[in-house]
Write a structure and sequence with these properties.
alpha/beta
């Protein structure tokens, strides 16, 4: 999950409308597909943009509508080799596909770019689509953000400030557009995705979803199982953990149920061990040995608790560490550089944002309330803000700084003001027209490897492809081996052999490139 700020879910109480909850759901009656009037996003841009108009509430298709911002990059190969359209969701929740698909475009396998139009969109509630925005002016949003602790709260005073800030955000959101808040669930977005599929003329869906996009994919696959052509789910959310198995009494937060704290702690430990196993020329924070580097990190965190370095508090630094583990290159080396600057008592500069893509609105409004609005529609969390400190301490005993970060990431929805009108919470095993390819990375700071195993088990017909490596999503942490299997699957439906394991092309803190080979359950090999 790409997280720009803490996000949360709320109560397990879900209102039913056109779909039922625990016992499964049936899609609403079809509405006409939207018309997509494709135009170049900007002069000379290789991307086309369009706007789709769809019902806010599929149970009332003649009522209020929402607009979805949609982007397309046409297949680059010869026309006769084009297969169709591949839809892409970049995760989040809250990821603006119109921005992130162009930013990630070069990471898609070459054959996929050649043979598919790649289409993405800002889901309802997000970015340049009809968006959740709980502030009347940008200055109000900026002031709200500046008034809460960075990363997560430390100490009683900061905890009170944090809780008060998100209670204030909830009040603002309730006043601005309560109707929209009830119609931004994953099930609503799955309905939108099916209308977009119809709009581009595809009889069945080809789809790549990463992170939260895997949960969207699983929801689509179980609402529209006969319409699945080829689906790739990369860095998976365990759907049963997300919904708390349709429980109405959550004891843990979404991310603690998912195991994000344990997974992040494991990869942070590997980051420090690998950093300590190399020289400062490759990892600036290295103390010469793995344990010495772990100790150095712990001393830095203790020092920052007492004496922040400029704006770099303990909470901000710990949150930055977890988020910076998502992309190995250049994220890990950049993180090591910032940690070393802090060790020397200097405030580092934050990471540079990626360049703006050539689209209509490369910098839409994105904020905590958009991500929270989606997550809160689906996933139950404790409703008492007072329990989060004890949950934090319990998680920190097991997972240290990562546990504190992931616990507070869910707290904003303790007071979130809306529940979804339409929700899907299982079952997850409806037979699909074609199988699903599930990709899981062994060391992931957000979605666990066992989450990928759980997704592959939950779906009716899925094959697990394992990436032995680091980071969040195989798409952003390249493996020629994974790319080859994903390409074959999307092009002609060929699944990797059962038990296939791949390696990353470039290990952390190394310039060497392994051969990209793959070990398979059957003992064979394949080039990457």
């Amino acid at each position: 999950m790409h997280i720009s700020g803490p996000i949360a879910a709320l109560t397990a109480a879900v209102l039913t409308c056109s779909m039922t909850t625990g016992g499964g759901g049936t899609p609403t009656p079809p509405t006409s597909a939207p018309k997509l009037d494709w135009q170049p996003c900007t002069q000379g841009s290789p991307y086309d943009c369009a706007t789709a108009k769809l019902p806010l509430d599929y149970g009332d298709p003649s009522g209020r509508t929402v607009e979805l911002a949609v982007v397309r990059r046409k297949a680059t190969g010869p026309g006769g080799r084009r297969i169709g359209t591949l839809f892409f969701n970049p995760g989040g929740p809250g990821g603006p596909g119109t921005v992130q698909m162009p930013q990630m475009y070069d990471t898609f396998p070459r054959e996929v770019r050649e043979r598919f139009d790649i289409v993405s969109w800002d889901p309802r509630g997000i970015g340049s689509s009809t968006a959740v925005n709980c502030f009347a002016r940008p200055a109000d949003a900026k002031a709200w953000m500046a008034g809460k602790p960075a990363g997560f709260p430390v100490g009683e005073q900061q905890r009170k400030a944090w809780i008060a800030a998100y209670e204030d955000l909830a009040r603002r959101c309730r006043q601005r557009d309560p109707e929209l808040l009830r119609h931004v669930s994953t099930a609503d977005t799955a309905q939108d995705l099916d209308r977009l599929r119809q709009a581009v003329g595809e009889p069945q869906l080809s789809y790549l979803g990463i992170s939260y996009g895997t949960y969207l994919g699983a929801t689509y696959a179980n609402l529209f199982p006969d319409r699945v052509r080829a689906m790739v789910l990369d860095s998976n959310v365990d759907p049963r953990a997300w919904t708390d198995d349709a429980s109405g009494s959550p004891r843990l937060t979404t991310f603690l149920r998912m195991g994000s704290d344990r997974s992040a702690a494991a990869i942070l430990d590997r980051f420090l061990a690998l950093c300590g196993s190399t020289t400062t020329a490759h990892c600036a924070f290295s103390a010469g040995r793995p344990q010495a580097t772990r100790d150095k990190f712990d001393r830095l965190m203790r020092r920052l608790r007492e004496r922040p370095v400029g704006p770099w508090t303990y909470g901000r630094t710990a949150g930055d560490a977890v988020s910076s583990l998502y992309v190995v290159h250049p994220g890990w080396a950049d993180l090591a550089g910032r940690l070393q600057e802090l060790w020397l008592g200097r405030a580092p500069q934050p990471a540079e944002p990626p360049p703006a893509p050539p689209i209509r609105d490369p910098d839409p409004y994105l904020a905590d309330e958009q991500a929270a609005a989606v997550l809160c529609s689906d996933s139950p969390n404790p409703r008492d803000p007072g329990v989060y400190h004890s949950l934090e301490e319990a998680s920190a005993l097991r997972t240290g700084d990562a546990g504190r970060f992931w616990t507070w990431a869910a707290e904003p929805c303790a007071t979130w003001p809306a529940v979804a009108a339409n929700s899907y919470r299982g079952p997850w095993n409806k037979p699909t027209a074609h199988p699903v390819l599930v990709v899981g990375t062994t060391y992931d700071p957000a979605t666990t490897y066992w989450g990928a195993q759980a997704m592959a088990t939950a779906l009716a017909d899925a094959r697990l492809l394992t990436l032995d490596g680091y980071g969040h999503t195989a798409l952003l942490n390249p493996s020629g081996c994974v790319n080859a299997h994903v390409s074959h699957f999307l092009v002609d439906g060929t699944l990797p052999p059962t038990g296939t394991r791949c390696r990353q092309d470039t290990p952390p803190f190394s310039e060497s490139r392994p051969n990209g080979g793959v070990a398979t359950g059957g003992g064979g090999t394949a080039g990457g």
